[in-house]
What does this fold into?
Amino acid sequence: MARIALDAMGGDHAPRVPIAGALLALAELPPQHSLFLVGRRDRLATELEAQCAGGKQPPGALERITIIDAPDVIDMSDKPSAAIRAKPNSSMVVGLKLHASGTADAFVSAGNTGAQMAASIFLLKLHEGLTRPAIAAFFPTARKPLVVLDAGANVDCSAEELVQFARLGSVYAQDILGRPNAAIGLLSIGEEPEKGNAAVKEAHRLLMQADLNFIGNVEGRDILAGENARAPVDVVVCDGFVGNVLLKFYESVPGMIVGMLKGAGSPPELIARTFEGFDYSDYGGAPLLGVKGVSIISHGSSSPRAIQNALGVALRAVEARMDEHIGRRLDRTAVRNA
Amino acid sequence: MARIALDAMGGDHAPRVPIAGALLALAELPPQHSLFLVGRRDRLATELEAQCAGGKQPPGALERITIIDAPDVIDMSDKPSAAIRAKPNSSMVVGLKLHASGTADAFVSAGNTGAQMAASIFLLKLHEGLTRPAIAAFFPTARKPLVVLDAGANVDCSAEELVQFARLGSVYAQDILGRPNAAIGLLSIGEEPEKGNAAVKEAHRLLMQADLNFIGNVEGRDILAGENARAPVDVVVCDGFVGNVLLKFYESVPGMIVGMLKGAGSPPELIARTFEGFDYSDYGGAPLLGVKGVSIISHGSSSPRAIQNALGVALRAVEARMDEHIGRRLDRTAVRNA
It folds into this structure.
């Protein structure tokens, strides 16, 4: 039984889209799971009523939703750390407090990413042995999807932090993607250990000694192939600057290709068939790994389906006890290094 | 009249492919232009004879080719700086010396990129005011193609170097793409000036004060759009680690999409039509900007058509007097800063 707190005021079209996503999720999730919708009580109640009016909602959906009042909203333009201090009654802070106190088992938001990171670190705390959390993003590939981290939580990363990301990604790939002993690749500009910037070269040395299934460097061209010259890859480790540029670049590819296909006279059915399974809303949410708990970051532009899938990722993380496994994996390392 | 030196031993299928590319180029270039083919004289003569045997070569092609003997070859696996010292009679070093001495007006190679960079810096020298050269790569976009630099010459870049790249890219966009007053974007992870890593944030500040058409940060998603929220972009500035990862990632996209299209049952003609104008061999060569001269870097896996196009880029750079313009642009800056 999982209880997930959803920031109903987060995202470009809140509260309409988060609520629609919540209802989609409840229609598919087993009945023991429930949701907290966090936001302005009156707006949420009105919206929920309107969306349920059609009578198409699953039986019992409303009983599995609890509205938690949070009168403030952190906007996309708010400065993260100032906002979480200035707006303690925001849906972001109230929702994360629900999780920190154990009332909710996870938190999902499509709101201000910087504020979600800052509030998650502040309220949930980092696991021992970590200096920074990392955002883990799914990348569809020619093989199975892989995980790229960090996708934007950190801009300047040390070699040690890159190794921390490798540990976090390894647990994530096991618990969420079902890939035990996940193959870890280090993003660089050549396959040889001596290629890369200073942090990457040092991280390569450290990863060779770590208790991880490290398969060496991966280059830009290896990501979509889903493998380097040596082995298939499950987790690609990089700093958050490169990871964020790459993620946003990749997200823009389908739009360009669809435009090219239309220009070449492709029938719409063929385009739809081609990009089946390639839709980013299939992946929905990127977890902020390293905090004690489950904090899932969604795009501001998320669709109801993306919110539904983000709630699904949260549920898988709770059921797999990912947070506990991350703690154990980091503890084991701490003991070994002591 | 331009005389271009081509490293006939550079690339995965040398000397066959460079020679085929040279013959393609001569068939299209006006008759006043000529080529030096640099490499093992006997192998080049045999290959040239074989390729001309069919009688399909343009009249007078052979008279416009001069073979320059260079018995050594720098392999892809050679360490760059060691190789240029150990192999002074390699096609790479001999070809660049032809250019440095003024016998040739430009140099093109599909060989070891690191060695080409090291030898270009050593033999041609950098323009005053520069600490590093940069590789400028074409990116096809939904609008006009744009230039990304640095695409891999430098891994750790200072803010000042990013500004140097902006100056180099501005001249390149003007001379090769015909875009006066080129719009410069700085690659970052958000549009606000305070987003990015330390070097990028400082570069943003410096670019605001520079005599350049700086349009602010561009994000990963803006590249294929060919514009940020403010304006179309001609030149994207980034460090060589990010640029190289992005370039190799982008180069791998068409292969994956073609696979998806085939999987969806797309007819081959539609695929060909879709990717018309998107072929990387249309762009062919990436200049190493900042050295005194014209040194064009091609992929090791270049096709004859890619070599032909790299020779075309070299010719345009010579005819536009790009090198002189870069010198002048940097001098002007030096005077202003003095």
Chain B touches chain A through 49 residues (CB under 8 Å). DSSP finds twelve helices and twelve strands in chain B. The mean pLDDT of chain B is 92.
